[in-house]
Design brief:
Elements: E1 10-18, E2 21-28, E3 36-39, E4 53-57, H1 63-71, E5 76-82, H2 89-92, E6 115-117, E7 120-121, H3 127-143, E8 149-152, H4 164-174, H5 185-207, E9 214-219, E10 226-231, H6 241-246, E11 248-249
Parallel strand pairs: 3-4, 4-5, 5-8
Antiparallel strand pairs: 1-2, 2-11, 6-7, 8-10, 9-10
Amino acid sequence: MNNLKSFRHIKSIVLAGLTGFFYISVLQAQDTEKTIVQTGRPYKMVYDMRADVAVVYGVDMSFESRVQSWRSRGYITHFMTGITWGEYQDYLTGKWDGTPHTDDEQKTVTGETVWHHENNPYYVPSMNYLKYLKEAHIKRVIDAGIDAIYMEEPEFWMRAGYSDAFKREWQDYYGFAWRAQHLSPENTYLSNKLKYHLYYRALEEVLLSAKYPAKTVKSTNSSSANVVFVPQKSPEWKPSRAWFVNFAMKPPSI
């Protein structure tokens, strides 16, 4: 905990649950950010809740104009998108890099895709998928001058764990071939431990990839947990990878 002495203006420390594991999160005082409205739409009077912050959801062709519509009304602008699902059809179909990525879909024992909604699967967060999120979404968000980034719902379903992407991640993580989780309690444990690792890695990769250093990391303990990353243009405080990792309770090694 001695490392915390180097942080300035710390308001509090919170231990919060996040899909089966824990973060110790440092909260920065934000006296002007007490109320929030979240929307995927541009500003309209009917949506104006007189809040301090507008959380603009999702990157699409209208993203920058939506941000500006709220900002021009005096709102501080934040951003939210899913870490495990989203309107990422350009990745799924291969439009982004020329290769379809249906193998990154979460799949059940019968080979069925786990869907959030039509044409929108839950993903295994492969390194290529994370590269897509960072390059196609996070960079654009930061370039738009967003003040905070919320990566919501880091979910890996219990019934999933049978896709080709998951099998590759298993081999890389454990050093031996994939084992079907339904065949034994040990396999179930190994599968769930890997799922934990993959979304821990996903959050770490995406949150620490931003162009500028972070000044706030926040986690909630709701069933739909979010992680917040606040870009900071000032170089005064540079977080290290070790800081993020060391303040998480990881499962025991086997």
